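Box 3.1. Reading complex inputs
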Amino acid sequence: MKYNHIAAALAALAIGISASAQQALSSRAPVASPEINSDNTVTFRYRNAKAVKVLIQGDFLTSMSPVEMKEGQDGVWTYTSQPLEGELYLYDFIVDGERRNDPSNMYMSRDIATWTNFFTMSTRKDDKGWYYEVHDIPHGTLAKRWYDSPALGTVRRMSVYSPAGYEKSKGKYPVLYLLHGSGGDEDAWVDLGRTVQILDNLIAEGKAKPMIVVMPNGVYYNNAAPGYAVNMFQPTMSNSRSDSTKEIEDSFQDVISFVESNYRVATGRQNRAIAGLSMGSRQSCSISRSHPGTFSYIGMFSGAVPVNTPEEEAALAKQMDPKWAPKLYWIGVGSADGVKAHAIKIKEYCESKGYPVEYYESEGGHTWRNWRLYLTLFAQKIFK
Amino acid sequence: MKYNHIAAALAALAIGISASAQQALSSRAPVASPEINSDNTVTFRYRNAKAVKVLIQGDFLTSMSPVEMKEGQDGVWTYTSQPLEGELYLYDFIVDGERRNDPSNMYMSRDIATWTNFFTMSTRKDDKGWYYEVHDIPHGTLAKRWYDSPALGTVRRMSVYSPAGYEKSKGKYPVLYLLHGSGGDEDAWVDLGRTVQILDNLIAEGKAKPMIVVMPNGVYYNNAAPGYAVNMFQPTMSNSRSDSTKEIEDSFQDVISFVESNYRVATGRQNRAIAGLSMGSRQSCSISRSHPGTFSYIGMFSGAVPVNTPEEEAALAKQMDPKWAPKLYWIGVGSADGVKAHAIKIKEYCESKGYPVEYYESEGGHTWRNWRLYLTLFAQKIFK
């Protein structure tokens, strides 16, 4: 093979990966999937004439099990849902026993190491899906920044949302520190949590105060999300925690110091909130405890602080007994979440101490669907 | 089914999408893929005991056609490459005729509407792959910002890279405006082009001047990338161009005005460069022409300005005949690129006019592999 021939072949290959993929997928036109119908049902389509059995699984189904798609004469498998409420929905296909993404839907999000298709829909203004969608309103800025953490001896990456108008304003803004869960990173609240869309929409509607939202990376082992860290690591649930004496919580002052010296922030406890999901909820508790008088609003989303034994209750008391009372402990948990009992214990503990507490129970479990909702609710409670 | 039962089921489903997916995929431990071996060969693995034929295609193969993977006793299909040079490589599998991504590799990038697995490797400092990887050096900031475009009557989104130290400096920085191709958006140069990594590395090595890189959205129909625009549109190659009288080039002053009033930029033509790939190359030409004396460095990566007829040559002359000479026209093209003849014509035109021109021909074709390389080279030529 002559050199030019190889070069031409390589070029054709590299250009053609998507084209040839379409060919491999089907010799006919691609199918539209998902299609949101006028009655708010949603139709999913998948072309594969060779497949024997195709299932769909998704969080819009009322069935826990995947359901069968039906094959048409044209080799296109189809499933149409019940009418759905406004939401962000996740789904994928199971093709002859193997999970795969919908090749017709380029909207995908990564949760730890798994990519899943999603779509948003809203049936009216102000339904849940509406807050996760983009509207023709003023938009804030999202920045990916690196900060120095002397406590950990390294630089680390964070996502920072600043609201529309921040750059041209001379005003100072309150700050919400928003923490992810095990296996997550500084991209999680942005990509899975739709933080930018939720805040843009709440602020435009006058339902939340313009605020800065800081989303640091809460994983000790990695200083950045995959693709932005030095190694091409594979994230897992279990590589989030430190086995050393240094915990991510011990370095939180580095996060605050960076934010307060790099952004026009309003200081004082009344202008700082901290919230997190699951592991991040536990971190929110302990950081507020180790920074007494720093935060006035503490959000615990699907809080995973264990309170099953007297020792654990004592540990909770140690985390939750500041010398000062914040203006709000906000607790959100799903009725089917395994940590619901913990959340109730924390609520009861706050009540027994006379701390200001709000408890919100939603449907469902330990899911991003709930964490998006909790952020939407919590953001309306703070800095007011 | 009682309510609680449904809620519990939904919760289990939503939590379990990735867990059940792993189950569906295999009852055994996941396989590692890709694995970069000590001799710089790379091993790909894919577990699927039911598959009859599994191929791999990728831009590291010396063959244009996909090659067969070999099934082991354990149902794991394997392919090991030749020793590879440092690069960012793309690949996917074809399983019984259907293209699919590697379920073991969460590193994926989206090119228009197609997701493809990738990995980076470097065999020594300073090889190509090294520039696309993240190293333990100072990192710049990446911001996603919205700007007002009075010319188009809308707000639009852009990506802005600012180099390490920008925020704490009082200095002014030169600006590279970097344009994507058909079907792309403001995320393309960041995600596919590895712009942040390339600039961080070049600047840390002292090979490029610290500069701001502005990556606007050059698609008329959409004002932001998928997921950040009002509609959940499906990007295509063909929806990039305007069919109205307003072209994205006509609104470019809005981009410059926003950048120069929101960043500490050094003004004057010697501090402005503009470059783009394919469609963006054509836009770079015409924007430099319609903003005479604005840019001193013009980069044309796989330039697609047609020059096959006398009329097209006259049109080129009209684009390329400014009243002033820039310091550099830099032309990069692949030896197997279909637009190579155009690039040579442009080079010859510059030479005939006595314009300063550099022509760089690489292997391969109209691919991101080349555009990353051209950015790496062009960024070292400007602002010096």
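In summary: The domain at 136-378 of chain A is CATH 3.40.50.1820 (Rossmann fold).
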